[in-house]
Amino acid sequence: QVHLLESGGGSVHSGGSLKLSCTASGDTAFRDAAKAWFRQVPGKEREGVAALNSAVMKAYYADSVKGRFTISPEHGKTTWYLEMNNLLPADTATYYCAALARPPPMTPSQALGPRVYTSWGQGTQVTVSS
Q: Using one digit for the tens of pLDDT, what is the confidence trace for 100-122?
């Protein structure tokens, strides 16, 4: 069984930065897994923020975070990060990491959609005040 453990959430002012981390345990195949970050606010659907195709090191981002957020892996380990800069109040949400071992080829839209991922973290709160 695979477990994903997130850390790094918190509260910042608008314009601030945070770095989230997610570590997988239980399946070494996750080193080459598709990895992603999602966020959700109450009453809304879970939104794909960033995704990483580890096999070819290709990253995809939601338009709302392009240029501000960066998804990156820790090479050789089953940990990946979401570095968030220039945070806005609209970024306030619960952030979840997700992964899919042995992923098939995916389009950017598929990689940023929640349906393909089989493992999820418990969520970490990010609050950005104006």
A: 988 888 899 999 999 999 999 99
